[in-house]
Amino acid sequence: MSKVVFVLAVLTSSLTSFSQDEGSFGEKRVKYGFNLGVNYSNLLHKEALPENASLSNDFGFRLGILADYRLSEIVSISPKAELSFNNSSVHFAHTDGTSSEYRVMPVSLDLMTHFVFKANREKLSPYFLFGPNVKIPISKRSDNSAEFSTNSDLAIDCGIGIDRAGTSFNFSPELRYSFGLLNVNQQPSVQSLRFHMISLVFNFVG
């Protein structure tokens, strides 16, 4: 957890140091802020699961910090660091009537670099985004030998949103899908798992 706090502190100080940089667009070239939202895990299997196994997906939530660096009037880069609390698992039913659960990526630190293309308007500006997302699991394996941890993941994010300009900050609801590319599984009974996610995030940038 101390590593997560350190990363967030460094990113926050970096964003603050750049926040006064003025561009040629009549406003600050670099802005920073925070976000929060809900997510829905979409754990998928490529190979067939064991007969006694089934997947479970549900809602979670996320929060983080972000920056918005304008490259031009319509293009910007938005680095983000978000803590994601996920709800996805594999359930196993055993022959003795008991069951067990393998939780996949229960908590992760998501480090994203989104390229944002915005139709700049006076009050409401729709936009499209895409970019890489590195998901680092930060929950520790428990002492129970039946539980396994999760591999890190590399994902591609894409999404849409709308930016509403305010007097002191901009409010941007954003819908994004994260397409996991790597096998995150460490459970020997399962061959491979891909971790996808859909998120509804509310950004506050000033």
In short:
By secondary structure, the protein is mainly beta. The chain has one helix at residues 2-18; strands spanning 30-45, 53-57, 59-70, 75-85, 88-93, 99-103, 107-118, 124-137, 153-164, 170-180, 193-205.
Explain the layout of strands and helices.
Blueprint: H1 2-18, E1 30-45, E2 53-57, E3 59-70, E4 75-85, E5 88-93, E6 99-103, E7 107-118, E8 124-137, E9 153-164, E10 170-180, E11 193-205
Antiparallel strand pairs: 1-3, 1-11, 2-5, 3-4, 4-7, 5-6, 7-8, 8-9, 9-10, 10-11
Number of helices: 1
- What is the CATH-assigned architecture? Beta Barrel
CATH class descriptor: Mainly Beta
Structural class: mainly beta
| Rg of Cα set | 19 Å
Shape, per Cα inertia axes: elongated
Q: How would a crystallographer describe the biggest sheet?
A: 8 strands, antiparallel, barrel
- What do the pLDDT scores average to? 87
Number of strands: 11
| Main β-sheet, spatial strand arrangement | 1-3-4-7-8-9-10-11
SSE series: HEEEEEEEEEEE
**Count of all domains:** 1
Low-confidence stretches: 3-8, 10-22
Estimate percent helicity. under 10%
CATH fold-type name = Porin
Strand content: over 45%
Distance between the termini: 28 Å
List keywords for this structure.
8-stranded antiparallel beta barrel; 3-stranded antiparallel β-sheet; elongated; 206 residues; 11 strands; Porin; mainly beta; single chain; 1 helix
Explain this structure.
The protein is mainly beta. It has one domain (2-205): Porin, CATH 2.40.160. 8% of the residues lie in helices and 57% in strands. It contains 1 helix and 11 strands. It has one helix at 2-18; strands at 30-45, 53-57, 59-70, 75-85, 88-93, 99-103, 107-118, 124-137, 153-164, 170-180, 193-205. The protein has an 8-stranded antiparallel barrel with strand order 1-3-4-7-8-9-10-11. β5 (88-93) and β6 form a beta hairpin. The protein is elongated. The two termini are 28 Å apart. The relative contact order is 0.20. Mean pLDDT is 87; it is low at 3-8 and 10-22.
